[in-house]
Amino acid sequence: MYKKALITGLTGQDGAYLAKLLLDKGYEVHGLVARRSTDTRWRLRELGVDSRIVYHDGDLADASSVQRAVLKACPDEVYNLGAQSFVGSSWDQPITTGIVDGLGVTHMLEAIRQFRPQTRFYQASTSEMFGLIQAERQDENTPFYPRSPYGVAKLYGHWITVNYRESFGLHASSGILFNHESPLRGIEFVTRKVTDAVARIKQGKQRELRLGNIDAQRDWGFAGDYVEAMWLMLQQDKPDDFVIATGVTTTVREMCRIAFSYVELDYQDHVVIDPEFFRPAEVEVLLGNPAKAERVLGWSPKTNLKTLIQSMVDADLKRVAKE
Ligand code: GDR
């Protein structure tokens, strides 16, 4: 028998890659999607999966719509990827971020507990929960210290997942994913902001790139590799929490150098530091230890940062040329 999955955040980067992965495995894929006047399905079209998904109108902030989606879809697996996911915006919209990224998780867990307790649940947790890091390499036992309203809301989402697992015996797992990127990344995130600018500068459509703290360090992987880890977590007999990372950390500055030098440009000729893009509180460095995921899930990252950034520049060069 084929399985059914319900994905929240379906129209985002991870939602699109995960939908493709599950469809390729023979799943019936459902998505909870908020109705918007703008086009939100371009990533699904890009991966050729748009017409193969069953859409449910709804929003994580609205508990009744979440319940309705669970009752209609009858999913075997729920992947809760929906969130206000841009850290920078979370200072401007702390309440929306808290409702969607925090309470939204409880809306889904409650729907599962009440109507379909056999459903397996995946929560998209984040390395932002480590924030002001308490260990040089962060793993499942590292204490949390979030540094943004986003990180704080996600920490609530993480602990309520753990709590429902322990309180009600739900098969609920939390993936603590470090930064993961792709050509489908939103333009507000720094990798895509850089690769898009590189393509524009190379084609004479832009001259400079304004960035904030380029000394920040991140552990960047490829989103396509990371959605595989989400699926693997729900195939285990026992629910658990896993850090998903590459184990390599790189500065934003070095990431810029990789992107610009790929098209024979020097980032120093184009990058301008602009205080507007600094955050009220910064996460200076993140470096994950994915040893448990390797051991238990048999998962390891397949794509290194250079290959990833170059593939993003290639995609942006093509897209910008068509504009
Ligand atoms: P992050 O991703 O906050 O780590 O969260 P982002 O790419 O936005 O920032 C990474 C680092 O780059 C620095 N930076 C800039 N960032 C942006 N966006 N724009 C700039 O101009 C800029 N200049 C420097 C930032 O200060 C930061 O240190 C991402 C999101 O996908 C989260 O949803 C997810 O949970 C985590 O990754 C893991």
TrEMBL record:
EC number: 4.2.1.47
A Pfam family the protein falls into: GDP_Man_Dehyd
Reaction(s) the record says it catalyses: GDP-alpha-D-mannose = GDP-4-dehydro-alpha-D-rhamnose + H2O
Cofactor annotation: NADP(+)
Record flagged with keyword NADP: yes
NAD(P)-binding domain: residues covered: 6-312
InterPro entries linked to this entry: GDP_Man_deHydtase (IPR006368), NAD(P)-bd_dom (IPR016040), NAD(P)-bd_dom_sf (IPR036291)
Transmembrane segments: none
Record PANTHER family: GDP-MANNOSE 4,6 DEHYDRATASE, GDP-MANNOSE 4,6-DEHYDRATASE
Family of the protein in this entry: Belongs to the NAD(P)-dependent epimerase/dehydratase family. GDP-mannose 4,6-dehydratase subfamily.
Protein's job: Catalyzes the conversion of GDP-D-mannose to GDP-4-dehydro-6-deoxy-D-mannose.
Protein name per its UniProtKB record: GDP-mannose 4,6-dehydratase
Organism: Pseudomonas segetis
Name of the gene this protein is made from: gmd
